[in-house]
Amino acid sequence: MSMRADELMRATIKILTDGAELESGSAATHVERALDKLMDLQQVVQETPQSPEDFAYFKKQVVQLLKTDQNGHGLTMYVFHCFNYAGRGRLDGFEEACHRRSAVQLLNDEYAPWSELFIPDDLEVIEEIDELLEEASDDAPPVPEPGIPGWVPDTHWWWRAPKRQDMTEEERAERIDYDSNDGL
Q: pTM of the full predicted structure?
């Protein structure tokens, strides 16, 4: 196992364990940090395959920790924030919505079916996120190719969904730097 993968796996477990042990409130920031680590780990694993046994044990730990009450609430908040970013997809929210949507998809593809990790309301919100991203794709600022994680498969269609791939950097910046007070 590569040192980088081992470090990412240990950090992820530590973050999720800390989130699970919170006395009250949500582990939203813990879940967000852990999912970022899982995305980094996915890139490392793609470049340097890991021992199937070690990785299977790690995945089992991640799933168990995500199922705790605090981390479960954190997952709900993560999906809610993704929904909010997707709602701003024509402006400054598209890239962050894609990032979060890929993290959620990674859980389903590599760790456990969504039905084991998310409450039914979250599953409906994930469907709504996809609809919002599709609707925004007509005008969304495209994500530059270097901004798309290298491990992302073609099934993560949202990254390349913007129809205006020819948008100039100036147009893209105007949309991303949008201020809700600009129209006032």
A: 0.90
